[in-house]
Amino acid sequence: MSFITVVEEDGRQIVEHPGSVAVVAVDRQDRVVLVKQWRQPPRKELLELPAGVREQGETPLETAQRELREECGLHGGEWQEIAHAWTTPGFVREEMTLFLATGLEEGETDRDEGEDLHIVRRPASEIASLLREIEDLKTLAGLLLYLRLTSPATTDAR
Questions:
Q1: Alpha-carbon distance 76 to 104, whole Å?
Q2: CB 85 within 8 A of CB 76
Q3: Is position 158 within any domain?
Q4: In terms of CB atoms within 10 Å, which end of the chain has fewer, N or C?
Q5: Does a structural domain hold residue 138?
Q6: Does the residue 141 lie in any domain?
Q7: Residue 61 lies in a domain
Q8: Nearest-angstrom CA–CA distance, 97 and 60
Q9: Taking the model in full, what pTM does it have?
């Protein structure tokens, strides 16, 4: 099943994408929940935010909540949209929405067939030191926004 198409506009090839989401997920133990999974384009495992593709008729929030439940078994909590941006605007028409979800409860996963990933939990206090391990831009952006939003110096300015 392909969810992308390639179109030509003004002599340029554009990849049409239905949109995506990513979640900075923080459980009730104040741990940030990430996933480690094989990614074919870089030919390696990457540590990433839970993320996924929007399905037809879903809002970004509905997609984010579904993906987090399916991949990590997490649900509930408080949700906040923290960013909305183009992923690769030079040739891909994909908008990504980043969410922060806190106070999440544990439950059962319901992964897609063939989805092989490992859940990684890190104390929120260790996120700044984790950044040097991250090779995925959506994850870097999400974690940096999380640090900015939760830093004592910036929480007073919000």
A1: 5
A2: no
A3: no
A4: N
A5: yes
A6: yes
A7: yes
A8: 7
A9: 0.90
Q: Which of 58, 113, 115, 126 is catalytic?
A: 113
Helix (H) or strand (E) holding 148: helix 137-150
pLDDT tens figures, 84-143: 999 999 989 999 999 999 999 999 888 777 778 999 999 999 999 999 999 999 999 999
pLDDT of residue 110: 80
**pLDDT reading at 153 higher than 80:** no
Secondary structure element (H or E) that encloses residue 72, with its range: helix 60-72
State how far the Cα of 139 lies from the Cα of 10, in Å rounded to an integer.
32
What is the structure's pLDDT at 1? 56
Which CATH number covers residue 17?
3.90.79.10
Domain housing 101: 5-153
CA distance 25 to 146: 10
The number of distinct structural domains making up the chain is 1
CB within 8 Å of 137: residues ≥ 6 apart: none
In this structure, the number of other CB atoms found within 10 A of the CB of residue 89 comes to 10
Task: Answer yes or no: 105 catalytic.
Answer: no
pLDDT over 70 at 156, yes or no: no
CB atoms within 10 A of CB 149: 14
